[in-house]
From TrEMBL, chain A:
One of its GO terms (biological process) is phosphorelay signal transduction system. The modification 4-aspartylphosphate is found at D68. This is Response regulator. Keywords: Phosphoprotein, Transcription, Transcription regulation. It comes from Aliirhizobium smilacinae. It holds the Pfam family Response_reg. Residues 18-131 form the Response regulatory domain. InterPro entries: Bact_response_regulator, CheY-like_superfamily, Sig_transdc_resp-reg_receiver.
From TrEMBL, chain B:
One of its GO terms (biological process) is phosphorelay signal transduction system. SMART domains: REC. Residues 8-120 form the Response regulatory domain. The keyword Phosphoprotein applies. This is Response regulator. It comes from the Bacteria. CDD domains: REC (cd00156). InterPro entries: Bact_response_regulator, CheY-like_superfamily, Sig_transdc_resp-reg_receiver.
């Protein structure tokens, strides 16, 4: 079967929770992605906001975006979050930064803000998703 | 990484859509898969993990698959390197790997090609 998060086609496999991770620190991204997969999530990894936006323009959808702020390229993680809010309002957003003194972030821009290094990221993101489902 | 028992495949490609679909397919065939978005990331992966097979695009945003091959051969003779230049070839490579993999192929590799082409057309 075709991965549901890529296909969206009728009859496609019912996918697990889907996450898009945008992080340019390679080993950190691998670690986060591996952690999420161990939790049964479908994970798509990109190393820049530009790459994430490119992917989202293919109408590929996710339950949640986990993004760093500072990444190489034209757009940064905050630009990516704004893009997602505008074009994929159904997606939850978690923003992470290595700098706890980072510029103030509009609380409407994300459901969760994390300071790196991030531990138990899968548990925290699960709570974001489940919290939303419980609220319905 | 995900499955300590499985062979590890490094998928190196700067094409996010192609890389993600191919990597997911290989995982569903039972492999442990590491995704590198660039030559530099691929080199880091080679230095940090025990890689059995590398499937790399010939062109990446910061270098070529040949650069990667040269780097790998300077470190290891045992890593199998497969360079691919087109989506169809990459899907065939993934299909061939899956035939040798620990699990049954989840779907025919041509469907990878069809799916990626369909998504590209949606843009």
């Amino acid at each position: 079967m075709i991965p549901a998060y890529f296909s969206g086609a009728a009859g496609a496999e019912k996918a697990a929770r889907r996450i898009l991770i945008a992080e340019d620190e390679f080993l950190l991204r691998l670690d986060a992605a591996d952690s999420m997969r161990r939790f049964g999530w479908d994970v798509v990894e990109v190393s820049s906001a530009d790459e994430a936006i490119e992917l989202l323009r293919y109408n590929v959808t996710f339950d949640i975006l986990l993004t760093d702020i500072d990444m190489p390229g034209q757009a940064d993680g905050l630009d990516l979050a704004r893009y997602v809010r505008l074009h994929h309002p159904e997606m939850k957003i978690a923003i992470m930064s290595g700098n706890s003194e980072a510029q103030p972030i509009d609380p409407k821009l994300c459901e969760l803000f994390l300071v790196k290094p991030v531990w138990n990221v899968a548990e925290m993101l699960t709570k974001v998703i489940e919290g939303d489902q419980n609220a319905k | 990484m995900q499955n300590e028992e499985a062979e590890t495949i490094l998928v190196a490609s700067s094409d996010a859509l192609q890389r993600s679909v191919i990597a997911k397919y290989l995982r569903e065939c039972g492999y442990s898969v590491i995704e590198a978005t660039s030559l530099e990331e691929a080199k880091v992966a080679i230095g940090h993990y025990e890689i059995d097979v590398v499937v790399s695009d010939t062109e990446m945003r910061d270098g070529t698959g040949f650069d990667l091959s040269t780097h790998i051969r300077s470190k290891s003779r045992s890593i199998e390197i497969i360079l691919t230049q087109s989506l169809v070839k990459t899907a065939q490579v993934a299909g061939d790997l899956c035939e040798q993999g620990p699990l049954e192929q989840p779907y025919h590799p041509q469907r990878l090609v069809d799916e990626i082409k369909r998504l590209r057309a949606l843009r």
